[in-house]
Amino acid sequence: MSALEPLSLFVRWAHVVGMAAILGGALLVWWLTARPFRTDADGDTRLEIAQRYEWIFWAAIGVQVMTGVGNLGAFGQGLPAPTTAWGLRLTVKLVVVLALALLSLPRTLAVAVLMNRPAAESGRSQVVPGLYAATVMLVLVVVVLAVWLAHG
Amino acid sequence: MAELLGPRSAGSERFVTFAFGTFHTVIFIVSAVLVLHLSGALSGVLTGLNTLTGLALFAALWATTTWSTGRAIRGVGGPVLATRTPIGSVVTRAARSGALNGVLFLAAAAVILALSALLTGQGDSIGIFILGGFFVVLVGTLAGATIGAILGVLFAAIDLVHLWAVGRLVRAL
Description:
The complex is a heterodimer of chains A (about 150) and B (about 170).
Chain A: H1 4-34, H2 44-73, H3 85-115, H4 119-122, H5 127-151
Helix pairs in contact in A: 1-2, 1-5, 2-3, 3-5
Chain B: H1 12-39, H2 42-47, H3 51-75, H4 87-119, H5 126-171
Helix pairs in contact in B: 1-3, 3-4, 4-5
């Protein structure tokens, strides 16, 4: 076993854990914001949880890209060309990841803005569950593409 | 956008800086990988790097980009969203911070690649990095600063569009 094999395994593990954090966290925040606690009438607790998720999301998506490129590097010269079926799936996955990042920044900024609004106003927000629902859908597309790339 | 963040904005600066910095890094790297993949050059580029070197280069870019983003945000007068900074001032600040980011990343990349060459038993090639160091100082700094400034302005434009969209979204609530 070469010295880099444990590192490659760690990179794959981190890639899977990062995706679990992104998807699981988005699902949890979506559920919590769509069905708020009775004790959280002003929405402060929901936004606090959402803000903590946003930290995790951006850390995890950074790790996803870092380890994702590492996984591609493991193919070496055997990386399929973009004209192959596998290469086309990779192209689609990269475009969806770009869309996920582009659409996630407004979500993060919306949470930051609502966090700094008076509690009575932010409690009325119905946009937050919708933003997390959209995130879950996009992340699920990425997951399906990733599984298809790995095992298809 | 002054009304977007209120008196609780100070605590949000670090949060927003990290999000913007990571966003810029992710968009840059994924776009680069996509372009290299579509042009058929990706395997050639990745084969030239071992896993550890690649991870270190990404971590360096992530760190310098987040730092320079924070510098740009602080430079426009405090927590982002909480200021009515003129667009011209934002663009100038973004270009300066982007240029600094380009130079810093280039220097970090030179150190990482030199260490990688030493650690993987390619010590003979260290001379290339010493010569390359002169190149970095003379030409690389200019190239890194120029590319960084262009990317900095491009990302500032994307960020302003995002801020405008969020402003409208939140006002509509």
